[in-house]
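I hope you will forgive my troubling you with a question about protein structure. I set the record out below, with my sincere thanks for your time.
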Amino acid sequence: MVAAKSLLAAALVALGLSAVARADGPRVRIRSADQARAVAALLERSDFGSGWQGGETNASSLGAPSCPGFDPEQSDLVVTGHADARFTFAAGDVVLDQDVEVLSSVAAVRKDFARTISGKLPPCLAYQIERAPNVVSATVTKMPFPPTGSVSAAYRATVVARSLHLKATLLTDFVFFATGRIEYSFNVTAPVQARNQLARFEYALAQILLKRAGTP
C-alpha cells in the first residue's frame, strides 16, 4: 500500500488549482515582494503535530496538460509569486502537497475560480489521476467544506491503485481557497481509513493560514 500511495502522490504534486487543466498557463511575472508573500503563505513544520516532516519544495510548473472538453482560459492571468511545500506523516501514510500563488489582482483570483471550479473539474481530476502509474480507477466528487476565505471549494477522489499483485483504495482530497490576491491549494493523499478525519484536518490548516494572512 505504501508503494502504491507514494507513486500516486508523486503524480499529483502539480494538481493545484491553477495547475489543473491548464494547457497554456498564466503569464508569470515574479515580483520579489509577492514571491516573499507566497513563501510566507506556506505551511510550516510547526503547524503539524509530532511525526510530520517536510517543508518548502521547488515550485511546480504552472503549465499542466488539459483535459478533454475542459481547458479554461488562463493566459490573461498574471502570477507574481509562486511557492510549493510537501509534508509527510509516515506513520499514518499521509502526504500533503501545498501550492500557493499570488496573482496580480483580487479580480484575477475570482476570475480564476469562476473559470476553474465548475462541474467539469471533477472529471478532469479523475482523468489526470487515472493517467498516473499503477492507478486502476478514480472517482472524484465535490465534498462539503465550510466557506473558507473569499472563495473556496473541495473535492475528494477515491482511487484504486495497484502495488505488485495487490490493490489498495486511497483518498486524495483537493482543497482550494483564496484570500485577497493569494490562492491556496492542498492535495492530501491518505488511506481510506482516514476518511472521517481528513476534512477536519484540512479545514484546521486552512484556518491557520487565513489567521496568518490576517483574514477573519
About this structure: The longest strand covers residues 166-179. Strands lie at 27-28, 52-57, 78-89, 94-103, 135-142, 151-163, 166-179, 182-191.
